[in-house]
Amino acid sequence: MDNQPSTPDFSDFSDKDKKDLQSFIENEQQKAKFQANVHNLTDLCWTKCITGKITSATVDRYENSCLENCVNRFIDSQKTIVRQLDAMGGRA
Amino acid sequence: MDNVGNMLGLSNNATKEERKQALMSTIAQQSNFENARTLIEKINEKCFEKCIPKPGSSLSSGESTCLTTCMQKYMQAWNAVSQAYIYRIKSDPRGN
């Protein structure tokens, strides 16, 4: 029981070590946010584009272009809504 | 979180660099795990909807096959969406 590991001590970390960790974590957070967006988009666009029975394990080219359009139009919608809200801002 | 040392699989005499690397790989691992967990949850939801329209007393072999096919297809769709999204972000960096 003597050599049971205890909580490691991070007090010897230099400013550079802390900076490295911070930028690593920021990068991981950005990655996680991107992945969450892709999960959300795939959910939405799957419902719109994969409408028939599942007969093939691959996405055919029609489905693929539907998925691409779906992603782009979703972002367009988002931008349009933000713009509209912005324009309404003064009167809201 | 009672023992970070155990979680990182480190002994007391790990060097600073080892502890730093261990911390980063633990964070990356948890992030990957979370991503996989969400993917599985979505696949289950979407493919259950597609493949099991009327749940019977047991999973038929047709339903099983459908689930496997659907799972592969969902992952392909995820990749296609991811690519399209990356492309859009790159060509339009201020547009989210």
Automatic annotation (TrEMBL), chain A:
It is a peripheral membrane protein. It is found in: Mitochondrion inner membrane. GO terms for biological process: protein transport. SUPFAM superfamilies: Tim10-like. Residues 24-85 form the Tim10-like domain. It holds the Pfam family zf-Tim10_DDP. It comes from the Eukaryota. One of its GO terms (cellular component) is mitochondrial inner membrane. Keywords: Chaperone, Disulfide bond, Membrane, Mitochondrion, Mitochondrion inner membrane, Protein transport, Translocation, Transport. Mitochondrial intermembrane chaperone that participates in the import and insertion of some multi-pass transmembrane proteins into the mitochondrial inner membrane. Also required for the transfer of beta-barrel precursors from the TOM complex to the sorting and assembly machinery (SAM complex) of the outer membrane. Acts as a chaperone-like protein that protects the hydrophobic precursors from aggregation and guide them through the mitochondrial intermembrane space. The twin CX3C motif contains 4 conserved Cys residues that form 2 disulfide bonds in the mitochondrial intermembrane space. Heterohexamer. Belongs to the small Tim family. This is Mitochondrial import inner membrane translocase subunit.
UniProtKB/TrEMBL annotation, chain B:
The keyword Flavoprotein does not apply. Belongs to the small Tim family. One of its GO terms (biological process) is protein insertion into mitochondrial inner membrane. The lineage of its organism: Eukaryota, Fungi, Dikarya, Ascomycota, Pezizomycotina. The keyword Phosphoprotein does not apply. Gene3D superfamilies: Mitochondrial import inner membrane translocase subunit tim13 like domains (1.10.287.810). Its main location: mitochondrion. SUPFAM superfamilies: Tim10-like. Mitochondrial intermembrane chaperone that participates in the import and insertion of some multi-pass transmembrane proteins into the mitochondrial inner membrane. Also required for the transfer of beta-barrel precursors from the TOM complex to the sorting and assembly machinery (SAM complex) of the outer membrane. Acts as a chaperone-like protein that protects the hydrophobic precursors from aggregation and guide them through the mitochondrial intermembrane space. Heterohexamer; composed of 3 copies of TIM8 and 3 copies of TIM13, named soluble 70 kDa complex. Associates with the TIM22 complex, whose core is composed of TIM22 and TIM54. Interacts with the transmembrane regions of multi-pass transmembrane proteins in transit. Residues 27-85 form the Tim10-like domain. InterPro entries: Tim10-like, Tim10-like_dom_sf. Coiled coil: none annotated. It comes from Choiromyces venosus 120613-1. It is a peripheral membrane protein. Keywords: Chaperone, Disulfide bond, Membrane, Metal-binding, Mitochondrion, Mitochondrion inner membrane, Protein transport, Translocation, Transport, Zinc. GO terms for cellular component: mitochondrial inner membrane; mitochondrial intermembrane space chaperone complex. The twin CX3C motif contains 4 conserved Cys residues that form 2 disulfide bonds in the mitochondrial intermembrane space. It is found in: Mitochondrion inner membrane. This is Mitochondrial import inner membrane translocase subunit. One of its GO terms (molecular function) is metal ion binding.
